Amino acid sequence: MKKFIGLVGALSFAALPLMAQGGRGEQHPAPHPPPRAVGGGHIPQRGPAPAPRAPAPAPRAQVHETGHPSAPHVDVKGSVWVGHDVRRDEPGLRLEHPWAHGHFSGAFGPSHIYRLGGGTYRRFGFDGFFFSVAEPDWGYANDWLWDSDDIVLYDDPDHPGYYLAYNVRLGTYVHVEYMGE
After folding, report:
1. What is the pLDDT, as a whole number, of residue 99?
2. Where are the domains of the chain?
3. Rounded to two decimals, what is the model's pTM?
4. Closest by CA position to 155, among listed 72, 75, 84, 90
5. pLDDT value for 19
């Protein structure tokens, strides 16, 4: 019996550090990293506003700021759609037959997050819907994980037939055409 009491006492003493951490072995959370300027789970509340009609803005040289990708992206501060306003008249973003495969019948906006289910930039899908990235944007989708990234779809107010697919992880977006179910 003395051995049993000694064992219980020794185990109780060894458990003191756990009790000091909340009793369940919980660890204190690590300090949060500084907020990122792009991506990291930020989801814009709405898509971009239509770009001004006339006069067309002169193309801006993309300045690569620390924490910002060189691809079109959404800046976390103010949910600014960087790169959208200067691409309004880009020839490669004009479809001869907009919505040739119909309109996407799913939901849009920040409350509808879709998990990519496989494919490539040429054809990818989720929930039985399929899309294709616009050719001028192929290079902007190089870092996308086609079988696991989360995206949010927005209407594109300037390019009939295209939607904007926003990658939640990266904070970048590309123009996509709906290919059907």
Report:
1. 96
2. 73-180
3. 0.72
4. 84
5. 43
